[in-house]
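Subject: design request, 548 residues
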């Protein structure tokens, strides 16, 4: 019996790790496709920074509506489904699924209608980019489809089938990119280089890709419907719950999970509602839109890319900490928390340093037709490490059951961001270096630094983690040495190759040198090294080389 129990635990562990890897790989792939999409749009004649401003302003409003209708749904439905399946109540689990489909489908439909009806008011008065009206109209139908697909993803996540959610996201991103390029080129060939229409084309591509995602999930559900029906017939421990009670249970779980993302969505809309409005005080409307497009298009895309490498760690911390809390054994959880925080620092610091030092050649390499934004990228990149660490801390706090704490901290950060934006964006950058769009960028950085300090302080009140300034020392040393090598390499390569090839080779060499320096400086303990994929094999090699 003991052997069987151990075997079951091992199987569960393997399945869990496999799911984490699947999500990690899918998320990285999705991010890469997203960057490719943004590179195409920014460099496309007729779209560029102005198109980014129009599309991004509409998309941030759309994303806020999505947050209200669907962000908390997958995790909430997954939690309720898994709880019922754990006791053999397949019938109850499927009932939750059906009620959630109807509830959030209706909510999504209402929000789609609201966005469609108020597109003109939002574009003219809220964000003050009238051209965004068409994009808002094009995006509005997808709220309904995303609401339903979120429930289906949550259902299969609750059944421990994370492949389906990962596959659907990948399909959605691939089709979004293909359809975006196809529609933009069609519009350019048939109607000319009308930025407003091209932005609407990108929005239509988003909606169509969401519909394709819905079709994929709906067809998959149809393919396993008989299997689910058989499970329902074999259901045990079914306890009748009325529709109202099920809706109440769903909302009771989903609303707390949605509050944080809603605050985050409001935070992102601070820029869309304050930048153009205030920049018009000392520049033309067209120039103001270009400035906002640079920040919301290129800069946000580049800054958010390193964050995708942190996804797998933040997603695993909640169940790890929850389990530790239930068993009242935090020793193992604390080690994993410290390890996750260290990974964030190791990714965040060199990402920031590289973007600050090579901001101009990076922008020229990726966006040769629209390369403005060097100073904005240098400022914005400072926030990378703090955002990653905040993600980890928030996951731990959620795992501890302190769901309201991250929301309060994030709300405080949003207030700081709003106040600083209001003060700085309206200042002409000719009078103050951190005025204008740079003011919005520095406001974001300051808000993330302050929220990190508060969050870390609060976390240490609940759990004794061993994380502090000492954890930054070796990564900073490795980063400085990496930068010295990169500067020397880039300077020498410029006399041999083109600038584009030089920056690409320099970044690849810099990453390689940084990894080697991490090993030489023994940033990881032996125990931490063994947690990394293939870490045990790496340790054997390092032991032979007498590094460890």
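Subject: RE: design request

Done. Sequence follows.
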């Amino acid at each position: 019996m003991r052997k069987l129990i151990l075997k079951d635990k091992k199987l569960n562990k393997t399945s869990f790790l496999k799911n984490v890897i699947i999500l990690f790989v899918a998320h990285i792939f999705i991010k890469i496709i997203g960057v490719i999409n943004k590179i195409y749009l920014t460099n496309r004649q007729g779209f560029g920074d102005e198109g980014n401003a129009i599309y991004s302003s509409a998309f941030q409003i759309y994303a806020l509506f999505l947050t209200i209708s669907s962000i908390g749904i997958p995790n909430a439905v997954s939690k309720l489904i898994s709880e019922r399946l754990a006791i053999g109540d397949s019938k109850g689990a499927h009932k939750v699924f059906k009620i959630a489909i109807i509830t959030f489908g209706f909510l999504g439909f209402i929000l789609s209608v609201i966005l469609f009806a108020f597109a003109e008011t939002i574009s003219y008065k809220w964000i003050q980019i009238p051209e965004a009206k068409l994009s808002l109209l094009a995006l509005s139908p997808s709220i309904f489809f995303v609401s339903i697909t979120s429930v289906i993803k949550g259902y299969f996540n609750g059944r421990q089938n994370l492949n389906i959610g990962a596959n659907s996201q990948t399909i959605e991103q691939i089709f979004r990119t293909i359809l975006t390029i196809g529609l933009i080129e069609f519009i350019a060939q048939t109607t000319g280089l009308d930025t407003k229409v091209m932005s609407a084309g990108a929005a239509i591509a988003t909606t169509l890709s969401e519909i394709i995602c819905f079709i994929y999930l709906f067809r998959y559900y149809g393919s396993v419907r008989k299997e689910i029906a058989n499970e329902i017939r074999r259901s045990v421990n079914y306890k009748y719950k009325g529709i109202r009670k099920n809706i109440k249970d769903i909302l009771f779980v989903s609303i707390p999970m949605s509050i944080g993302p809603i605050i985050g969505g409001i935070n992102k809309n601070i820029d869309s509602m304050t930048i153009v409005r205030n920049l018009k005080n000392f520049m033309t409307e067209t120039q103001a839109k270009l400035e906002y497009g640079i920040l919301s298009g290129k800069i946000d895309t580049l800054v958010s890319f390193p964050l995708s490498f942190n996804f797998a760690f933040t997603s695993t911390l909640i169940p790890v900490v929850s389990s530790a809390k239930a068993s009242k054994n935090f020793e193992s959880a604390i080690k994993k928390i410290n390890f996750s925080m260290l990974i964030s620092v190791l990714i965040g610091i060199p990402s920031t340093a590289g973007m600050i030092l090579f901001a101009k050649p990076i922008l020229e390499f990726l966006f040769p037709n629209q390369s403005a934004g060097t100073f904005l990228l240098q400022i914005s990149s400072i926030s990378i490490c703090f955002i990653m660490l905040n993600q980890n801390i928030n996951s731990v706090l959620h795992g501890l059951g302190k769901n309201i704490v991250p929301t309060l901290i994030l709300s405080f950060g949003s207030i700081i961001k709003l106040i600083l934006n209001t003060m700085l964006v309206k200042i002409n950058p000719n009078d103050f270096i951190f005025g204008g769009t740079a003011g919005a960028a520095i406001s974001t950085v300051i808000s993330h630094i302050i929220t990190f300090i508060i969050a870390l302080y609060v976390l240490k009140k609940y759990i004794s983690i061993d994380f502090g300034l000492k954890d930054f020392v070796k990564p900073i040393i490795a980063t400085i040495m990496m930068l010295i090598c990169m500067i020397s390499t880039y300077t020498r390569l410029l006399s041999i190759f083109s600038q584009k090839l030089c920056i690409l080779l320099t970044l690849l060499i810099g990453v390689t040198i940084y990894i080697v320096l991490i090993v030489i400086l023994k940033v990881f303990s032996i125990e931490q090294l063994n947690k990394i994929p293939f870490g045990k094999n790496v340790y054997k090699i390092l032991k032979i080389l007498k590094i460890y």
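Residues 2-43 form the longest helix (42 residues).
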